[in-house]
Amino acid sequence: MVTAAGLIFSNIHDKNVPELTQKRSMASVPFGGRYRLVDFALSNMVNADITKVGIITHYNYQSLVDHLGTGKDWDLARSTGGLKILPPQITTFDNAGAKTVFSSRLEALMNAYNFVSKSTEEYIVLSDCDIVCNIDLRDVIKAHVDNGVDITIVTKNVYLSHEMAKNCTIVESDKDGRVTNLIDNPASMEGLMDLCLNIFVLKREYLNNIILDTLSRGYKSFTRDVIAANKDTMKFMKYEYEGYFATINTLDGYFKSSMDFLSKDVRDCIFGVKSRPVYTKVKNSAPAKYMGDAVVKNSLIADGCVIEGEVENSILFRGVHVGKGTVIKNCIIMQDSTIGRDVNLNCVIADKNVVIKDGRNLSGHETHPFPIAKGTTI
Asked: How far apart are CA 185 and CA 170, in angstroms?
């Protein structure tokens, strides 16, 4: 029987969306009305019968810890295995060679050395939190084992513009799917290409050796110093994912991906697979309340909301209050925010606990949404 443990990177891409990660990690960014980004990576692992998962943290991880708790909502509150939060202070103390502040995937893995070395599972699945998808990791692991390769890299064939490609890692491969090169943040590439989804499968022993080699040689980049540098001597294969995915590497990307979830077809791709549900922290709240003059069209409204005005093409998280005479279109309003009376909002991303007073008019654009920081009063 094949056994695998999981490692999730919670902070790797925080700098890509500073508007949302100033007071939280990428893993705990709210998404889709009731979820956090970590829920998708964590659910993918749990649905593949991975019962030991380490979450590598860096800073701003208090909200992530609050969200994950003991892991019981993902059936990971276990005496053996289960959910392990890996704070940098603890792992750095345990590993004198590791740096207190890491800035790359390899340095993050050094901080997780004890988790890797003390695990008994044969394989490790690595995953970031900035990709929203529902992938069958059991099939990825099976393909990895059947192909007898050193690392399997999950990819998605998509069309990327110059602007999109410069925030991505591109995988090049031969006709058999063997990886021939990885290119980080290309400045001049455009067209159909294989995007790296930052999901990797490899043997635990091999990962352990990578970390030790990194410590001794001072390597920095997982893609450049491990994969690209060894592509001719080791066997790396791609696994092409066919389903829906969203990548959160800009504020515009977060807005567009969120708006995608207003489509039933997209929601069915992520939430409609009965064998692979998406889990999140369960909160017992009263149902949303729609007052007499409320008008709601094509929107996701979470529990605990009170709607007195008009909401269209928008996503409202738990506990949002929309005042009478207010019109909200193409917006994302996060938890416990209060929108006053006679307010007009368009293409706005309001973080948690935002208060917008009566009569305000705020507008962004689909390509440049207007962000409002957590706890702001306007």
From this structure: 8
How far are the Cα atoms of 45, 134, 253, 269 from residue 246, in angstroms, in the given order? 18, 10, 8, 12
Backbone angles phi, psi at 4, to 5 degrees: -145, 145
Contacts of 264 (CB under 8 A, 6+ apart): none
Q: Which residues pair with 281 in a beta bridge?
A: none
What is the pTM (predicted TM-score) of this model? 0.92
Residue ranges per domain, the chain? 4-271, 289-372
Give the whole-angstrom CA distance, residue 13 versus residue 26.
7
Which of these, 197, 194, 202, lies nearest to 175 by C-alpha position? 194
Domains 4-271 and 289-372 share a fold: no
Cα–Cα distance, 72 to 167 (Å, whole number): 35
> Which parts of 213-309 are beta strand (E)?
236-240, 245-247, 289-290, 295-297, 300-301, 306-307
DSSP string of 80-128, one letter each residue? SSEEEEE-HHHHHHH-TTS-SS--SHHHHHHHTHHHHHH---SEEEEEE
Own/partner contacts of 68-77, CB < 8 Å, gap of 24 or more, are: 68/38, 68/281, 69/281, 73/279, 73/280, 73/281, 73/282, 74/42, 74/43, 74/46, 74/279, 75/46, 75/51, 76/46, 76/51
Least trusted range by pLDDT, from 78-92, 255-269, 280-294: 78-92
**Nearest CA to 360 among 328, 331, 314, 319?**
328
Residue 28 token pair: 């705990």
Nearest alpha carbon to residue 345 among 318, 319, 325: 325
What is the DSSP secondary structure assignment for residue 186, as one 8-state letter?
A: -
Q: Could you tell me if 170 and 196 are in contact, meaning their C-beta atoms sit under 8 angstroms apart?
A: yes
User: In the CATH hierarchy, which fold is given to the domain comprising 289-372?
Assistant: UDP N-Acetylglucosamine Acyltransferase; domain 1 (2.160.10)
pLDDT single digits (tens) 121-176: 999 999 998 899 999 999 999 999 999 999 999 999 998 887 777 778 889 999 99
| Spacing of C-alpha 254 from chain mean position | 11
Residues 188-204: what's their mean pLDDT?
A: 91
CATH number of 4-271: 3.90.550.10
